[in-house]
Every structure is written in C-alpha cells, then in structure tokens.
Design brief:
- There is one protein chain.
- 85% of the residues lie in helices and 0% in strands.
- The protein is mostly helical.
- The chain has one domain.
- 0% of the residues are buried.
- Keywords: Membrane, Transmembrane, Transmembrane helix.
Length: 81
C-alpha cells in the first residue's frame, strides 16, 4: 500500500499541474490570435504603403505647379490682365 504522504503529494502535484495548464492554455490561444492579427495588420500596412507611395513626390509636384503659376501670372501681367 502507498503511504498517505505520497498519495497526498501526488494529488497536490496533479492539482498544481492542472491549474498551470488551465492558466497557460488561454494565454497561448490569445498569443496565437494576436500573432494572426499582427500578420493581417502588417499586410494591410504594406498595402497602404504601396497605395500612398506616390505621395512622396507631391512636394515636387507642388513646387513645379508653383513655378508654372508664377510664370502664368507674369505673362498675364505683361499682357495687361
């Protein structure tokens, strides 16, 4: 027959293992969900970067438009307009 102390120790150990597993499993499930959402977010950010890449040249376009407008204003002034 197994002594009472061993039986009690095994029962306590089993309870501790069950409690740890019950706490760790939801954390792992949540981490997996976060990882999946992070991948989706990264993909969305990459698409947004591709779709807005043209905005990098907007300052150059504005500068050129400003020069053109200034030229048109000078031309209008010379024509008396």
């Amino acid at each position: 027959m197994v002594p009472f102390g061993w039986t009690l120790g095994l029962a306590i150990g089993l309870v501790v293992v069950v409690v740890v597993v019950a706490l760790v499993v939801p954390i792992l499930v949540l981490a997996h969900k976060i990882g999946t959402q992070a991948q989706q977010l990264d993909a969305s950010l990459r698409k947004a970067r591709q779709h807005t890449a043209g905005l990098a040249g907007l300052r150059t376009t504005i500068d050129h438009a400003t020069v053109i407008i200034a030229g048109l204003q000078r031309g209008r002034a010379r024509l008396g307009g």
